[in-house]
């Protein structure tokens, strides 16, 4: 890889990291009753992967994530920062593994491959977030034990419309709430990023060459 290409990747990662921080400062699209933000913060990280590659995307995330944890409404501090990174990294790590086998151009040109990679990424994200929210994030953030977290999700005050409409309680309510909203966030991340990357590929094809 030549020096100019490396410079472009570094600059791209820095610019997209800054964009992620700016988005974090904006009001979220939606906030669940248990304070998960639905937003576009991770979109620049995934766009960075699609355009510049995995190393650039990882750098982009690592540059911006400390500020993501402290800026904007419902930032969540170091717990929110950690969960955002752990939840979102799958959205470009899993597709990157697919791209390693098929190539990025193939992944983008054959949409079913991207859809499969996104669905796998979302499934892994959901499982990781169900485990980590139960034993790490929510217990620390709300000073609860895991059993208290389950009771917490039995209270209608802390359920969104999905839990309330299905009449869920206990562990089922917890798993459905966490999986549902992480799936929504994953869909937003994966396909908003894809649309942006495709626009860039059409308008600025030289940027995506030799990535």
How many strands in all? 2
Main sheet, how many strands, which sense, barrel? 2 strands, antiparallel
- Envelope shape: globular
Percent strand = under 5%
Keyword list:
211 residues, mainly alpha, Arp2/3 complex 21 kDa subunit ARPC3, two-stranded antiparallel sheet, 2% strand
In short:
The chain is an all-alpha fold. 75% of the residues lie in helices and 2% in strands. Strand 1 and strand 2 form a beta hairpin.
How are the secondary structure elements laid out?
Layout: H1 3-25, E1 30-31, E2 37-38, H2 43-52, H3 54-68, H4 77-102, H5 104-109, H6 111-142, H7 146-152, H8 161-166, H9 170-203
Task: Describe what this molecule looks like in 3D.
The protein is mainly alpha-helical and 211 residues long. The protein has a single domain (3-29, 40-208), classed as Arp2/3 complex 21 kDa subunit ARPC3. It has helices at 3-25, 43-52, 54-68, 77-102, 104-109, 111-142, 146-152, 161-166, 170-203, and strands spanning 30-31, 37-38. The longest helix has 34 residues, at 170-203. The mean pLDDT is 91.
């Amino acid at each position: 890889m030549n020096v100019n290409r490396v410079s472009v990747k570094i600059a791209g990662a820095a610019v997209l990291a800054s964009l992620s921080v700016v988005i974090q400062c904006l009001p979220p699209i939606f906030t669940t009753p248990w304070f998960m933000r639905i937003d576009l913060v991770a979109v620049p990280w995934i766009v960075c992967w699609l355009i510049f590659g995995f190393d650039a995307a990882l750098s982009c995330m690592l540059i911006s994530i400390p500020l993501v944890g402290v800026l904007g409404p419902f930032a969540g501090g170091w717990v929110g920062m950690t969960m955002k990174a752990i939840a979102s990294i799958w959205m470009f790590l899993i597709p990157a593994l697919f791209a390693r086998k098929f190539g990025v151009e193939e992944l983008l040109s054959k949409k079913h491959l991207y859809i499969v990679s996104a669905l796998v990424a979302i499934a892994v994200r959901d499982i990781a977030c169900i485990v980590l929210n139960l034993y790490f994030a929510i217990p620390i953030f709300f000073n609860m034990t895991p059993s208290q977290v389950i009771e917490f999700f039995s209270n209608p005050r802390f359920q969104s419309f999905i839990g309330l409409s299905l009449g869920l309680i206990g562990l089922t309510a917890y798993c459905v709430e966490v999986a549902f909203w992480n799936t929504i966030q994953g869909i937003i991340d994966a396909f908003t990023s894809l649309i942006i990357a495709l626009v860039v590929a059409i308008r600025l094809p030289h940027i995506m060459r030799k990535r």
